[in-house]
Design brief:
mainly alpha
Amino acid sequence: MLVLGASGCARERFVGSATEVVVVVATDLVPVGEDGDGEIDLREWELARAQARREVRQRQAEALAAPELHLMRPPSGGRLYLISDLDPERIGRQYRWIAAFHAAVFLGASAATAWFGQIGVF
């Protein structure tokens, strides 16, 4: 079986590789010649290809029916990571707006405290 990568989900393993899998599986399924001559004729090759197609379709159906599996590892060096389905620029923009809002609240509260201190409320 031909696997295109070690990461990703099971559904992606078969995308674009069905023809390669058919050829690989077909070469494994071809007998050395059913008639005993040691050569593979066209009929034997077509039978092996048909069997390989059935096997590949079965494997694809199993892979598509299986739940997706995603592996996550902690980042190296003790770095933190964020899990999100949003664009990284959008996340950064949101955090900048939140930081600006909290800075404005802090400055407003500081100014209000100073003003209340001047008028004698505190």
